[in-house]
Amino acid sequence: MPKAAIPAVLAAVLAAGLLAGCGSSSSGGSQGDGKSLTIYSGRDEEYVGPLVERYGKENPDVKVEVRYGDSAELASTLREEGDRTPAGLFLSQDAGALGALQAAGLLTKLPAEILDRVPARYRSTDGDWVGITGRVRVLAYDSRVLNEKDLPKSVFDLTAPEWKGKVGWAPTNASFQAFVTAMRLTAGEETTRRWLEGMKANDTQPYEKNSIIRDAIADGEIEVGLINHYYVIEGIREGQVKGRDYPVQLHFFPGGDVGTLVNLSGAGIPAASGQQAAAQAFTSFLLADPQQEYFARQVGEYPLVPGVRQDPSLPPLESISQPNVDLADLKDLQGTQQLLQETGVL
Fold first, then answer.
1. Is residue 139 within 8 Å of residue 259, measured between CB atoms?
2. Homologous superfamily of 135-261 in CATH?
């Protein structure tokens, strides 16, 4: 049995996400005095909290409050709140949630000095959001029972009988939903539907979070799992501290397979925000070299600002054979959630 069941409250969350958004135009709200900032963070507190604390020490006159939650859930909340939102900044763990808000006209354009910090591939083509870090979808596997030669060449192979009951996934997770959106874009709606149905029929085990999938592999509950790469890097580092080998390793699907989607965490500023000056300042802070180095060294993610050194145990980001997907197109979060519901995955 999975360590964590899918929360019952999810149905209400998804229902909210399917509501039509209402809000102000994308011309942006007032700049504010820069002294207060409310952040909606789809990234966990363990990753964002230390930087909020660092920012507070460097800017003691600025009051920063953070509301943590799932990226998809917070995006739905922003759609519901519209021009009444108290949020000054949205931090998302994937491009899909940012794209959904952009499509609803709920984000304001960022200044060029922020956008130009990262390559064009990792920011909105319309300038409404910017990537902060890169993360790669991978197949994490138990190296005690599997070798690289045993692993599938494509994510589509996981519906085969030999993987029955051995695979973990996190259907409620925003990164997983962005990956499914990418599959819909590259393979088509019906192929994605058949894959989801095949995975469900193959007794794929549902978990609430990527980290729980990783731990389930380490505990021998399952053999492989679809997660973001940095969770495994985190586990390997913890194993090194304890002086033992960590059993979970990374498998990058070859050949531009959609299972090796390179996604990102990113930031967008609600158009209705009255805290735009503070939001821009905090976004610039996240894209400064020290914070990019923190994400690379402490979290194991890929820094997106050129010149910042990545974790040396990872392949260079530009060497990864990723699918041909414009991250700005991962905006149909509602369509993906609907498909997941229709196939019984949610």
1. yes
2. Periplasmic binding protein-like II (3.40.190.10)
